[in-house]
Amino acid sequence: MTTISTTDPGPIAGATGLRTEPDRNCPLCPRLAGFREAARAREPGWFNSPVPSFGDANAALLIVGLAPGLQGANRTGRPFTGDYAGDLLYGTLLEYGFAEGTYQARPDDGLTLVDCRISNAVRCVPPQNKPLPAEINTCRQFLLATLATMPRLRAIVALGRVAHESTVKALGLRATAAPFSHGALHQAGAVRLYDSYHCSRYNTNTRVLTPQMFRSVFAQVRADLG
Ligand code: SF4
Fold first, then answer.
1. For labelling alongside 140, which of 45, 126, 161, 163 has CA 20 to 30 A away?
2. How many angstroms is it from 20 CA to the middle of ligand 1?
3. pLDDT, position 21
């Protein structure tokens, strides 16, 4: 298992000793740390820190996104909260019973996840939504720790190619044996990985991903988990 290294111990999950959440000033990706500092100076009321996972570590389903959106999770501090991607994701989770309440695009809207958790492959907002390969590799230690500290994990939905590839590496699968494709399933021991195109506004505007295509992935997960 990858060793976790931050300047702050961060939350330590159970008896595993694995750090699932980076320090709010995590320095491991200098470019992203600089981007974060510039955002703090520009928008002091925003979250502007590594965005922690949302949902119970005892959940059976983990959703892995790419990274916080600048004006979404980076602003609000909750994954996928406050931008278009969240509208589609949380609406779909509510429809398939993986969330309860009303999504109002605010972290204090009272929405709760049901047997579901949401995280990101990269915890800090990257410029133009594009983390560099080295940043994805560096931040994987927190994804690894997240996976390792979910004892009931049975299903992962990877949103987009970057999330898929980082999750494949975290699961120890060979990349050539588990290529990304919307709607594809990959088995890693007891855990099944489901691929979806990312639910970004760009993908839906260009109809790379329709809401129905997105729903069909979660319908499959719901059918498999029961
Ligand atoms: S992306 Fe991850 S590893 Fe890089 S600075 Fe942010 S929290 Fe640290």
1. 45
2. 12
3. 96
